[in-house]
Design brief:
The protein has 16 helices and 22 strands. The chain folds into two domains: 403 residues, Glycosidases (TIM Barrel); 79 residues, Golgi alpha-mannosidase II (Immunoglobulin-like), CATH 2.60.40. The protein is an alpha/beta fold. The two termini are 36 Å apart. About 6% of the residues have low confidence. The longest helix has 26 residues. β4 and β5 form a beta hairpin. Bound molecules: calcium ion (CA) (2 copies). The site of one calcium ion (CA) has 7 residues, from loops. One calcium ion binds next to loops.
Length: 605
């Protein structure tokens, strides 16, 4: 157990605990009722310092350390740290039933100038893959990943990973030097430092001698694999399917890749290359797919499912690849999970199928063409905007569109790395006071000026129909990263274990546990019962049983609630928020709301 985890757990234990109920454990898992916790492994919890400088990251080309910049450096989070929180029940206490973790694959080893050059940007968030067949050793070994998966499954958590079949990691100087591509002609880059803190950009632009040599660049992925603006490659295109999303090289779907990338063969060595080649041959023989670069990536991604029982993918940039590639990824991943279950002796077990969600920029609550590509759910960028609507209209619309159409589903969120951290902006955060951009292992900052706003938004999110996504630190008031850097980069600050908003966490825990215990919340039909205080009903049939709840929002003190629509007299009810119990009499139950004004009514069974 790490110190920070112990400290946070102790802090939580000191507060009065409301144990909602044990019902959550008996509710069968359904993706339609998912409460997903989305985190970046590197930014969540550092289980061991032994892997913190994997591949020489944080060191220059001569082995001398750079000043740590909390924005774009790897900060130490790993599988082992995350596993500790899984085992301590941190996620289960929040009512979370699925983790969404950043891609575990080996990332490019080097960095480029980030933003306008104000920080060094490594692939810490898993979005710059170098080798899909290995874990990144900063996150941990394959054995540690397997242990994390085992711990998550043992805790009743599904595990999703963030994937992408559109782009690979950039060329960095360290990788060019290590894997002999791109033709660096000078060693000047190795010890280079910018003249000013905002000058990191020129590292790649100016210093490096990028030769015009088609031959030396062919030793990278090769022109059959990617589009990139380097000699000998088809340049990044204009149309969305051939453009270089996030400036990353675009994987080609249109041509056969006749050979493996040279740098990978060099990295792997003869023995591994032989094994991987035979494996790929078997995959293409079985599937009959064209040997395109994208289909290679599909093979490698689904290997992770087959080896570790990954329960689902969230596919980023689906708009930048063909619908056929998306369908192939889902088909192969579904098959791979079935293979894993068979190997575990789990065939026929009542368990959830592979879940496939899409992260499409600005997608809202509409049944778009993407659902034809096989997505089980699409991330809902419209949620924070919908918070401006009258509350009953939002709840009723979501229940109607999501729960009455089995072929439509969205996953709502408050915060993301693409949109910002909900309720947190401005000057409150950061380590801009650290002169050298020194290590900011706390996530920096302390206060949360808009805590109430975040609390109210949490209530709305967790009580909304459909799946919901908690972006790490939404529950604890994690502040933005340091000021003065790219705004979206600031959304990926370190988890704020040292400045944890316990009151806010409690709030998420209570409503999250209620949501986990009651399928009616996410999956049920919705009816308004009263305007003042706002009271609603949700109900869903579960086999022979019916799950029903009544929720009051904005209650003030002692509140009589007409519950006769659900419960007869003498039924014992509980408010899951405060733990208060009441008995139905003349169709009414009386509860005393606390300052939250929230009454979460469930039957005591
Ligand atoms: Ca570590
Ligand atoms: Ca593409």
């Amino acid at each position: 157990m790490t110190l920070s985890r112990l400290a946070v757990l102790c802090a939580l234990l000191l507060l009065p605990t409301v144990r909602v109920s044990a019902q959550a454990e008996t509710v069968p898992f359904s993706w339609d009722q998912a409460t997903i916790y989305h985190l970046i492994t590197d930014r969540f919890s550092n289980g061991t310092r032994d892997n913190d400088s994997a591949y020489g990251r944080g060191l220059d080309g001569n082995g001398s350390p750079y000043d740590v910049d909390s924005t774009g450096h790897f900060l130490g989070g790993d599988f082992q740290g995350l596993k500790g929180w899984v085992e301590d029940g941190y996620f289960s206490d929040l009512g979370v039933n699925a983790l969404l973790i950043s891609a575990p694959f080996e990332q490019v080893h080097g960095w480029i100038g980030g933003g306008f050059g104000e920080f060094q940007r490594y692939g810490y968030d898993g979005s710059w893959p170098l080798d899909y067949t290995e874990t990144d050793l900063a996150y941990g070994t394959k054995l540690e990943f397997e242990a994390l998966m085992g711990a998550a499954h043992a805790a009743g958590l599904k595990v999703l990973i963030d994937v992408n079949i559109n782009g690979v990691g950039l060329a960095t100087l360290n990788d060019m030097a290590a894997f002999d591509f791109g033709g660096i002609t000078s060693d000047e880059w190795r010890g280079w430092r910018p003249a000013s803190k905002s000058g990191w950009q020129s590292y790649n632009d100016r210093l490096v001698t990028i030769t015009d040599s088609t031959e030396s660049w062919s030793k990278w992925w090769g022109p059959e694999w990617i589009r990139a603006d380097v000699p000998g490659y088809e340049p990044c295109g204009e149309p969305v399917q051939t453009h270089c999303a996030d400036q990353l090289p675009d994987l080609r779907e249109d041509v056969v890749a006749t050979k493996l990338p040279s740098f990978l063969k060099l990295k792997w060595g003869d023995e591994k290359t032989t094994v991987e080649s035979a494996d790929l041959d078997a995959f293409f023989k079985r599937t009959g797919y064209q040997r395109s670069a994208t289909n290679h990536i599909i093979k490698w991604l689904t290997d992770w499912v087959r080896s570790y029982g990954i329960d689902g993918f969230v596919l980023n940039h689906p708009e930048s690849v063909s619908p056929e590639s998306i369908q192939r990824l889902k088909e192969q991943a579904t098959r791979a999970l079935a293979d894993w279950k068979a190997a575990q002796g789990m065939e026929g077990a009542p368990d959830a199928p592979f879940w496939f969600a899409g992260n499409v920029s600005d997608h809202g609550l509409e049944k778009s063409e993407f659902f034809k590509s096989g997505f089980d759910s699409i991330f809902n960028y419209g949620f924070t905007g919908d918070l401006q609507k009258p509350i009953d209209l939002q709840f009723a619309t979501y229940a109607e569109s999501i729960n009455k159409d089995a072929s439509f589903h969205v996953s709502s969120f408050l915060s993301s790395s693409a949109t910002g951290l909900y309720g947190r902006s401005g000057l409150q955060n950061g380590d801009s006071d650290l002169p050298n951009g020194g290590p900011d292992l706390t996530g920096g900052g302390s206060g949360l000026p808009n805590g109430q706003d975040l609390k109210d938004a949490a209530t709305r999110l967790l009580l909304s129909p459909g799946a919901v996504v908690i972006y790490y630190g939404d529950e604890s008031g994690r502040p933005l990263g340091r000021l003065g850097v790219d705004e979206l980069e600031r959304t990926k600050s370190n988890m704020n274990w040292a400045h944890f908003d316990e009151d806010l966490v409690r709030h998420w825990q209570k409503i999250g546990s209620f949501r986990a215990a009651h399928p009616a919340v996410a999956r049920g039909g919705h009816d308004k019962l009263s305007d003042a205080p706002y009271t609603f009903y949700r109900g869903v049939r579960q086999g022979l049983d019916t799950d029903e709840v009544i929720v009051v929002m904005g209650a003030n003190g002692k509140t009589r609630v007409n519950v006769s629509i659900v419960w007869p007299d003498d039924t014992v009810l509980r408010d899951a928020y405060t733990g208060n119990v009441a008995i139905v009499s003349f169709g009414q139950a009386t509860f005393t709301a606390d300052a939250s004004g929230l009454i979460l009514i469930e039957e005591v069974r």
